[in-house]
């Protein structure tokens, strides 16, 4: 759908509700040869008669009487009768008067092939008459751009048959691609012309039926199946012409399944965007009653607008041409001029009219939610927040799709296969050199009604109805990071997209840069969720004026395994989990260390690595098994940014040279990628987690596993406070091996008491976390 520019919600606006969409063609060559398209309607009727799902099919055939082309409804009960109705008819009929009585009088169940407006008539009748409803086994609607008055057919016949020779038959359209029309005389002579000999006039809306001016239903909203042409250029070279099929009901789906099962047709499912792309020019034109209502006033035709949407200049111009053609072909002088005009001039006029249509695009409906400040790879704390946010919002907004603005877009795209999640880049270069300047210019020109071109990434951002910022810690006295915090949300604000900051740590606001940045940009947020009481106090003291401020526990406390978007190294994780479970069953004590490259940079190397090894040596208990787990990981990447695999390897190298063989054998080193699910599967088996990563702490608490933190910010304390465990954290600057070893021993001795304390507070914390997803914050555009 991305390739065609049609998403599912936009498609529904133009083609109505549907269950599935297909391309297909009849496998009966004689049917395809005689059909206007792929012969699918005939195949469905043949299959239904053979399967006894219905006893007859209401069809429409054309015939010639007194050199006039006329139409007649009939109910076919035999396969050989179906061929009489093949091919398109572009002439007004009287469905209510001629067809409905046939259906009512028929003794069995019927399938009905009809136009969209006729499917609506049937839908109204069957809703009021239960007996009539039971007679309808299957309703198949043809696509219909509009229908034409009898006068158009008469005019084309006069041009083809100026001497008024006796006519035997007239076919509007048959054959491949746009097809041909054929006139057969009584003496056997035939005239075959390209279909555009007729359709050029029809496509210009000359002699259009008046009722079609009010119609928005091109495909048959009330049918079981809707079937029509595919005018996509990629289908032109296909040697077999196909039909596009829209399945709307269970009866329609059963018909598709049956015709495939019985080998009468080749039918394969396609995205709805491909179906819409096959009618991309006509769908927006047909749907835009507003424009026809505006233009129709000039020609004395009163139409009821179908929405209050503002019309563009192009829509007005197109409607003006259309309504003029409709009106002009009803004037005697106009009819004479149309008929006398050389066809090449009609063709040029049609090219102009089609050009206007091509320039018009569907009014795209975007149930699109933007998320920034997180990534799937690298910081798996960010991943836990990201997948949880998407998981909750999917449940809340089932039709939504997601734009994730990631600072590791390449790796994320390789891992995420969910079609509803599109990964965009939001690395610093993209934010500063692409998003910001084009968002600034677009917002500036939009104020005077001019919409300028923007790169596709900025366009994807513009299509978002809201941007959720889930950065774990922002506007928090972190030097140049203030610029990243600003540029993650500034482009959205310039584009008029509401920004909501989900649960995160902020403050204090002391330095000039942080105070100024927060004052300008936090005040422009729609809503802010503080991750704990310390952040809430910082925000309260800062006295922001505009945004709503709420307290909510970290997003990751609401994580569920089914939210995961990736599946990384499952065999390795399973093997390690089985090993740990076995050790635990044998009464071994398991300690998980989760170091951080962020604290490594603050404390320095090798002091940070040595801190953990010295603590392990001081504990010196043979019943303890250790796991070094990189909570942030980018497998195959040698950079330290968001990649604790590097520090795990550094510690491993030191361990091999400093620890004895027995102790080394009791350590598992994880040097591969794993997601939040894998991390929690491992942590679940631990007696204690020692970490410098915030979300490793959250994962431990969420699994009721005691945790001790070597950290650097108030963000740890405000979360631990929710569990009455503030003493379970120490600032990195005060950490030493003696203290760390003593704390590990203490926490191991008190682990059951700690587990109970965590379990006591966890339901309330989870409820707090989930509360940020309860309000209906998204007003889709």
Number of helices: 34
Oligomeric state of the chains present here: single chain
Global outline: elongated
Helix content: 40-55%
What's the number of extended β-strand segments?
Answer: 27
Radius of gyration: 35 Å
User: How much strand?
Assistant: 15-25%
Structural category is alpha/beta
Distance between the termini: 18 Å
Model description:
- The chain has 781 residues and is an alpha/beta fold.
- The strands form five sheets. The protein has an eight-stranded mixed beta sheet, with helices on both faces. Strands 12, 14, 15, 16, 17, 18, 19 and 20 form an eight-stranded parallel beta sheet that branches. It has a six-stranded parallel beta sheet with strand order 24-22-21-25-26-27, with helices on both faces.
- Helix 9 crosses helix 17 and helix 27 (607-619) packs across helix 33 (737-749).
Gist?
This protein has 781 residues and is an alpha/beta fold. Strand 18 (499-506), helix 23 and strand 19 (527-530) form a beta-alpha-beta unit.
Strand-helix topology:
Elements: H1 8-15, E1 20-26, H2 29-34, H3 40-50, E2 56-65, E3 68-76, H4 79-82, H5 95-105, E4 110-114, H6 116-128, H7 130-135, E5 136-142, H8 150-160, E6 167-174, E7 180-185, E8 190-194, H9 196-203, E9 225-228, H10 233-236, E10 243-247, H11 250-261, E11 265-269, H12 272-277, H13 282-287, H14 289-296, H15 313-328, H16 332-340, H17 343-359, E12 368-372, E13 378-379, H18 380-396, E14 401-406, H19 409-415, E15 421-425, H20 428-446, H21 456-462, E16 466-469, E17 473-474, H22 481-494, E18 499-506, H23 512-521, E19 527-530, H24 533-542, E20 548-551, H25 570-585, E21 589-594, H26 597-603, H27 607-619, E22 624-628, E23 632-633, H28 645-658, H29 661-665, E24 667-669, H30 676-683, E25 688-691, H31 694-702, E26 707-711, H32 714-720, E27 729-731, H33 737-749, H34 751-771
Parallel strand pairs: 2-4, 4-5, 5-9, 12-14, 12-16, 14-15, 16-18, 17-18, 18-19, 19-20, 21-22, 21-25, 22-24, 25-26, 26-27
Antiparallel strand pairs: 1-10, 1-11, 2-3, 6-7, 7-8, 9-10, 13-23
Helix pairs in contact: 3-11, 9-17, 14-15, 15-17, 20-22, 22-23, 27-28, 27-33
């Amino acid at each position: 759908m991305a390739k065609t520019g049609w998403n599912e919600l936009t498609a529904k606006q133009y083609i109505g509700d549907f269950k599935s969409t297909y391309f297909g063609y009849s496998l009966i060559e004689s049917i395809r040869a005689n059909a206007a398209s792929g012969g699918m309607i005939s195949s469905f009727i043949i299959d239904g008669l053979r399967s006894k799902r219905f006893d007859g099919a209401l069809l429409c055939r054309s015939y010639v009487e007194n050199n006039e082309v006329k139409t007649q409804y009939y109910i076919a009960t035999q396969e050989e009768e179906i061929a009489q109705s093949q091919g398109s008819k572009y002439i007004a009929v009287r469905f209510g008067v001629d067809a409905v009585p046939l259906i009512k009088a028929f003794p069995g169940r019927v399938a009905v092939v009809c136009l969209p407006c006729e499917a609506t008539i049937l839908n109204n009748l069957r809703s009021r008459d239960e007996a009539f409803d039971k007679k309808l086994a299957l309703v198949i609607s043809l696509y219909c751009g509009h229908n034409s008055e009898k006068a158009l057919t008469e005019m084309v016949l006069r041009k083809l048959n100026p001497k008024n020779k006796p006519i035997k038959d007239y076919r509007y359209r048959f054959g491949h691609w746009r097809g041909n029309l054929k006139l057969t005389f009584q003496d056997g002579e035939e005239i075959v012309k390209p279909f555009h000999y007729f359709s050029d006039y029809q496509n210009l809306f000359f002699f259009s039926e008046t009722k079609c001016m009010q119609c928005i239903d091109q495909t048959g909203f009330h049918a079981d199946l809707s079937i029509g042409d595919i005018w996509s250029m990629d289908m032109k070279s296909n040697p077999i012409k196909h039909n596009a099929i829209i399945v709307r009901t269970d009866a329609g789906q059963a018909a598709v399944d049956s015709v495939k099962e019985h080998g009468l047709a080749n039918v394969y499912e396609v995205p709805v965007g491909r179906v819409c792309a096959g009618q991309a020019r006509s769908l927006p034109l047909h749907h835009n009653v507003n424009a026809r209502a505006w233009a129709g006033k000039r020609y004395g035709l009163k139409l009821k607008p179908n929405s209050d949407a503002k019309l563009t200049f192009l829509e007005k111009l197109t409607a003006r041409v259309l309504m003029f053609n409709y009106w002009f072909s009803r004037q005697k002088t106009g009819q004479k001029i149309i008929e006398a005009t050389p066809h090449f001039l009609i063709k040029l006029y049609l090219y102009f009219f089609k050009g206007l249509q091509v320039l018009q695009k569907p009014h795209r409906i975007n149930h699109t939610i933007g998320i920034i400040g997180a990534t799937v790879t690298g910081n798996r704390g960010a991943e836990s927040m990201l997948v949880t946010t998407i998981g909750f919002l999917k449940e809340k907004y089932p039709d939504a799709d997601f734009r994730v603005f990631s600072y590791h877009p390449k790796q994320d795209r390789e891992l995420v296969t969910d079609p509803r999640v599109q990964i965009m880049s939001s690395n610093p270069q993209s934010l500063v050199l692409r998003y910001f300047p084009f968002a600034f210019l677009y917002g500036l020109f939009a104020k005077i009604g001019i919409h300028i071109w923007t790169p596709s990434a900025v366009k994807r951002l513009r299509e978002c109805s809201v941007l959720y910022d889930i950065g774990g810690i922002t506007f928090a006295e972190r030097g140049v990071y203030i610029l990243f915090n600003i540029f993650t949300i500034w482009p959205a604000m310039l584009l008029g997209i509401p920004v909501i900051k989900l649960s995160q740590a902020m403050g204090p606001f002391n330095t000039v840069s942080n105070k100024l940045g927060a004052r300008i940009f936090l005040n422009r947020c729609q809503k802010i969720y503080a991750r704990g009481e310390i952040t809430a106090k910082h925000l309260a003291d800062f006295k922001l004026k505009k945004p709503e401020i709420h307290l909510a526990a970290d997003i990751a406390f609401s994580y569920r395994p089914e939210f995961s978007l990736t599946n990384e190294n499952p065999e390795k994780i399973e093997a390690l989990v089985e090993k740990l479970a076995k050790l635990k069953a044998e009464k071994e004590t398991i300690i998980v260390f989760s170091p951080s490259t962020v604290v490594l940079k603050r404390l320095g190397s090798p002091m940070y690595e040595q801190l953990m090894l010295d603590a392990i040596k001081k504990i010196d208990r043979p019943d303890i098994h250790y796991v070094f787990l990189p909570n942030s990981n980018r497998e195959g990447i040698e950079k330290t940014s968001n990649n604790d695999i590097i520090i795990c390897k550094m510690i491993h190298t030191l361990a091999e040279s400093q620890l004895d063989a027995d102790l080394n054998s009791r350590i598992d080193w994880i040097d591969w990628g794993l997601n939040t699910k894998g991390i929690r599967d491992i942590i679940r088996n631990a007696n204690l987690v020692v970490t410098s990563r915030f979300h490793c702490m959250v994962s431990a608490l969420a699994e009721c596993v005691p945790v001790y933190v070597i950290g650097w910010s108030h963000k740890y304390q405000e979360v631990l406070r929710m569990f009455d465990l503030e003493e379970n954290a120490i600032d990195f600057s005060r950490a030493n091996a003696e203290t760390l070893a003593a704390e590990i021993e203490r926490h191991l001795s008190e682990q059951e008491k700690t587990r109970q304390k965590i379990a006591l507070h966890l339901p309330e914390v989870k409820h707090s976390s989930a509360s940020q997803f309860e309000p209906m914050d998204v007003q889709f555009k």
